[in-house]
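look at this:
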Amino acid sequence: MENGALFETCSIGDDFCSSSYNFEHCKNSVKQWASSSLQSDTKDGHILKDLLFFLHVPRTGGRTYFHCFLKKLYSSSLECPRSYDKLRFDPHKPGCRLLVTHDDYSMMSKLPGEKTSVVTILRDPIERVFSAYEFSIEVAARFLVHPNLTSVIKMSNRVRSKNGGISTLEIWPWKYLVPWMREDLFSRRDVKKRNGPSYAHGNDSYDMEEIVMPLHEYISHPVAMDIVHNGATFQVAGLTNNSNIHEAHELRQCVITHQVLGKYVLEVAKRRLDDMLYVGITEDHKESATMFANVVGAQVISQLLESAVNNDTAEQGPSDSSIDTTDNQDNSSSTTKAKGKNMTVGKLMETYETCISSLRSSQSQRRTASLKRIFPANFTKEARRHIPDALLKEIISLNSLDMELYKYAKGIFQKQHQLMEQKLQDSVTPEKWHVMLTKIDSSWIAVYCFGFTFLVSLICFYKSAKRRISKIKMCFCCIMFSCVKWNLSVDFVSSFPFWKFKYTNNFFS
């Protein structure tokens, strides 16, 4: 997996740890890395650049944004190939403008940093641990239709060689977590078969050791220590076991062994969040989606429209009949224009709402079908509420870096939200209100004038007969003047404040 040294943990008295992960050595290594990493080359981080890199932290809802936002904006020809597969990723593809991947921030070493904008979403660390645990079991449970683990491995190898595509088993971190959990499920199923069907299950889905690995066992396992806990911080910092940084494993193990060194990694992660175009919060779903559409979506639309205009000139020349159909992608420029030409932020949000409803429905059905294979274990929000407080405290302790980073991200999110609200308010200037109001349908103006004429005429009718005609003439002139002024300016209301009228004889004198 990683330099032949995956999932190592150090214990007191371990000779290897003493030599490789002693405190002074670790402190110097981590501080040196942090110092070099804090020297950011990012400029104008809040302006969309040529390439959008969506750093997808697992179990934060990022896949929804990919399918329901980004794929509605970018055509297939603009997606970087094999985005979720680092081993086959080609950042040099001409026209590559969207990268969505679970790869950590170290991927930036393969990208043109000065031309790349980064976005991400963070989630409450406790909820993310629950979700990672549940999803690992959910995917692994799909293989329980097979009689044994050997047949599963053979089948998986045949499918991969035949498809040539990418499955969940090839995507980080699931390429580690799912096989681990799958092997555990088959092992427990074999034990259950040997012990007979009268095995007692209990009522706690998170503690049914005869069926699935209990949550308390999961969170203390070396695999979870290496991948799951503080996973968001390590991913944003670029120090996962999927990193492009050669010394990532050593640095990560130093921090796991000496937790006090985590402050250096946390500081790097915070700085990188500061430089990102957008930071969303899973729990603030509606606000995050609205902000993504207005901050990221609006700039993508503008960028693609500009590109489409620039491409129009080239399309005026001789047409090229050759079409590249590699990877079944539509590489025609017309696809790009079709995606962005008529798109607006409002339409993007409408499309998102429709898409997310359909996506959630299909995901729910698949989850239900998978969990049936490990019945009576069933992971629900209600079941989470019954997890012991001691276990929750342990999860919080194991994810102290993520807890701090999440708190920091929420602060960034609030500032972004306030800035977005201010921009939206500023965008509706008095001049724009003038234009909007002058476009009011003429029929409403006619109705208003008619009603106002009737009201004033009724008042005039009760005046003395001697002066009635002159009064009506004056009223008629006022009405005509007001109607003409309405058509000339939306300042009619302020120039003719009818609500200030005092209906007395002095008014008409």
User: Anything to note?
Assistant: The first helix runs from residue 15 to 20. Strands lie at 51-55, 98-101, 116-122, 278-281.
